[in-house]
């Protein structure tokens, strides 16, 4: 008489199930084919053996999960349905992690289609953890880099079963061969989607799902859990400071042009002041990295990564501003200076545009809106006020007035952009679930900070400048300088608080019911 274990092993052998076996028998890949996962939701019992086996195989700590199990439920008693989803990397045909990585640390193996991560070159910027709509890449706190599922490709190469497949007691996870073109043309729309998962078409996910028939309306069992995202404080300061510099530099360039028509010429001190925010802010971005000493390698993937483009453009922008400071100091001809300033402005504008495009990613709906671009450029109004402050200190009151007017127009525009950013959270229909949760974070968790942002911006960007204009018209220059200094501090705090809210209120796309997913960023 067979023991239960022997019976179980024989059953697996007779049915050809991959689970429980050390070896795997799958067809050899032909041209145009790759490996993929198949997940059978009708078989999964939610035991999470796959999570444990994956962590043990790859020596990961408990909170670093390359495979995760999510949970959904629906229906009414007694016709109640509980549905699980075990998901790791989908080894996409068009992986967003690969395109966005600034150091080209992701490789899609040509022979197998498996997407692997090259740990040695990773700088721990975690941009891929934002970019992936499935939230697959995971930051490894101990190693200070991002890590992810590689389908146990080193086991597959020698005919062994991946750890998650081998450990699943119900055979819910399998490795398959897929014809890529047939999958894209015929099967992906029907078999690649799972309730509450992002649209497979975003990255051309290859995972095939088998779902129960006649599914009722489901809900995520963790939908009541609403947590702020990571605050990313180094990026809060870096982005705001570099955006202030581009505004100040635009005002400097405009002043240098107007000096050709008899207006006061900008000075060496003004050039230094508009350069300083970028010079201070740009190095702060390295504090965001897991491996900051490799920061310069972030420029490696100019071809597809907006992060690489931002790093290169803003690096050149800051270097050119230093050159302009030297040109002012040495009193080089104005024609040459204007030419260099024009090039610097083009590079700086592209740098801030690249900076805003980093966040225009489908995986983060509250970021992926035109208001992100507008608000990033909108911060530049502070640069005009900063230059006006320097002009007052240097006793150029005639220069300060037009700069103040320019700054006030920018502040009013920024108030409008911020209002639209909040209003559209509740009016956009696509990804409504995530956007409404972002709106809830604003209203329930950060209401005071949001109110501070609006009040501070109105007072410092509109009300106080009106008072400054009155003081200037009365020749009270010291009083005007003090009030303007206070105003600049307030508007900077307002923009820093808004950027903080930008990061902490984002609700990403991802897997339903993943309340045990660990430290997903």
Describe the SSE topology.
Layout: H1 4-15, E1 33-40, H2 49-58, E2 68-76, E3 79-87, H3 96-100, E4 106-108, E5 115-117, H4 127-131, E6 138-140, E7 145-147, H5 153-156, H6 163-167, E8 173-179, H7 180-191, E9 208-210, E10 218-220, H8 233-258, H9 268-284, H10 306-330, H11 334-357, H12 370-378, H13 381-393, H14 397-423, H15 432-445, H16 447-473, H17 477-504
Walk me through what this model shows.
- The protein is built from 17 helices and ten strands.
- The chain is elongated and about 105 Å long.
- The strands form four sheets. It has a three-stranded mixed β-sheet with strand order 8-1-9.
- The two termini are 52 Å apart.
- 46% of the residues are buried.
- Helix 9 packs antiparallel against helix 10 (306-330), helix 11 (334-357) runs antiparallel to helix 12 (370-378) and helix 12 (370-378) runs antiparallel to helix 14 (397-423).
- With 521 residues, it is mainly alpha-helical.
- The model has no long low-confidence stretch (mean pLDDT 91).
- Strand 6 (138-140) and strand 7 (145-147) form a beta hairpin.
